[in-house]
Amino acid sequence: MTDTRWTIRLDGTTLPEKSLIGGKAWSIARMRGLGLPVPPAFVITTQACLAFLEHGAFPEGLVEEIHAGLLWLNEQTGRVFGGSEKPLLLSVRSGAAISMPGMMDTVLNLGMNDAAEVALAAETGLPDFAHDTHRRFLELYAAIVLKSPVELAPGDKAAAWRAHLAVPETPRECLTGAVRAVFESWNTRRAKRYRDHNNIAHDLGTAVTIQAMVFGNLDERSGTGVVFSRNPLTGARLPYGEYLPRAQGEDVVSGKFTPLALEAMHDLDPAAYEALMHATEQLEQEHGDMQDIEFTVQSGTLYLLQSRSAKRAPDAAVRTAVEMVNEGMIDVDKALTRVSAEQVKSLLLPRLVNGAAEAGQIVAQGEGACPGVATGVVVTDPDEAERRAARGEAIILLRATTSPDDIHGMIAARAVVTEQGGSTSHAAVVSRALGRPCVVGIGAGTALLPGAIATVDGATGIVYAGALAVEIPDERGDPLLSKLIAWAGERSRVQVIRPGDAGGISDYVDVDEPLAAGDMDILPGLLKGAGVARGLALANPETARIAQAQGVHTIVTEPVLPALLAVLGEAA
């Protein structure tokens, strides 16, 4: 292979560090190394991104390396980027080392122009497909690169579209613009807020994966979808996902279309479905973790585009961790890293009491995308949600569909509800990452109105009028949580016990009363030098971590598992 500084070909012969090529490119290299069907690709490294962000221009040599990478893709595909016959179209996708779903930018179908449309129409005999692909490229390029979002009417002529949007004439110019846009998306407001919320460093940069396009919108035997190797809501060991016939990936993640259940793919194309199931099982075994896999079917042939560890709801995190130990896939230490203190805390938050749902008035119903129950006032604007939550209000964010620009409102909200989309839409994926109850696809024109108080049940997909009665779960009554308590207790250097089991302890610092005013800043001084700390506030993972940092060796609180996992994680 030719020596390069800024780009790497993802041919499966090597597996570079994720920090250099990002998670997306790493998964492509891994899947190609396993012999799975993946369109060829090369990657521009995170180092090139950081150099660009520092100097505001491509680093020396990058343009030449991109050209060499395009020639390699031409050889791999038998097509020609910018060619007037058998044109090669590209997907240009961001990819950080740590997954940031939906936070950065992607441009599909790059290389499309008037000549490419004519060539694709002649090659496939499907002029409608070629025209649709041209429209898709222009809409994405206008939104991502030109920052001028448009919706183009399918019947309009492409030449009028391009003239109106001032899209560069040549595919090479378009590619340069797309790469710049992906680099710049690293520092967008939404990306920075996501990193702040998830404690991701700001100096990592994003890679740019340049991959040969395959077309889920080609014909009746084409489509696109997402499959999870296990159910990301419950953890059940059954493939779970969605499939959208005659579509491209952006149609699924945008939430603008409601896809079919994955089982529909089996009926439409059983051979592609069976190939997907085989690949899904292989990838879970290889990674030893639940996988989130993006795929496209082109004329009955399956292509895998990405595989990554799946974001999962708290119920699924607990079940998957324990069951994978039982299956011999991972050990106990690994399982304890798969469940966060914050996830367990959310599981032990209030839930609807028996009978409350039956007595409640349903104002909207859709698909449950992340379990949990939350009550609050309905707000439709993410900025308003952030402002009102900062004042202490409980907020339910209602949107037609969410986009990466809504992340600050989703962080502020207690729950998220969308009118459109399915369980792999942006709203669903990000809500699971945040641990927010989420209901998607309730439809427009429901009785759920801004300003009303509502209760959202993210497990059933139902939204109720008013505040319904709730109860607090008992961790001791759950066999999976009990198993985690036993495992964590054996490994933690800080003992965490319930108040009912602490009868012999009299010398302790009680944190509940001093913290009643909500001033966390006093806690380190309060606990410094204390051996034992007591209080229900210590069930909060953040509080438990402060106690451990001050040298506390015994915490008396309830529930115990969030505190146990918090101190165990800090010790690790």
Brief sketch in words of this structure:
The chain is of the alpha/beta class and 572 residues long.
Layout of helices and strands, plus pairs?
Blueprint: E1 7-9, H1 18-33, E2 41-44, H2 46-55, H3 62-77, E3 80-81, E4 87-88, E5 90-96, E6 106-110, H4 114-124, H5 127-144, H6 158-165, H7 171-185, H8 189-197, E7 206-212, E8 223-228, E9 240-245, H9 249-253, E10 260-261, H10 263-268, H11 270-287, E11 291-298, E12 301-309, H12 314-326, H13 332-337, H14 341-347, E13 351-352, H15 356-359, E14 362-365, E15 367-370, E16 373-379, H16 382-390, E17 395-399, H17 407-412, E18 415-418, H18 426-434, E19 438-440, E20 453-457, E21 462-465, E22 470-471, H19 479-491, E23 495-497, E24 509-510, H20 523-527, E25 532-534, H21 541-549, E26 554-556, H22 561-571
Parallel strand pairs: 3-4, 16-17, 17-18, 18-19, 23-26, 24-25, 25-26
Antiparallel strand pairs: 1-2, 2-7, 5-6, 5-7, 8-9, 8-11, 9-10, 11-12, 13-22, 14-21, 15-19, 16-20, 20-21
Helix pairs in contact: 4-5, 5-6, 12-14, 14-22, 19-22, 21-22
GO molecular function: ATP binding; kinase activity; pyruvate, phosphate dikinase activity
Protein name: Pyruvate,orthophosphate dikinase
Domain PEP-utilising enzyme mobile: 395-461
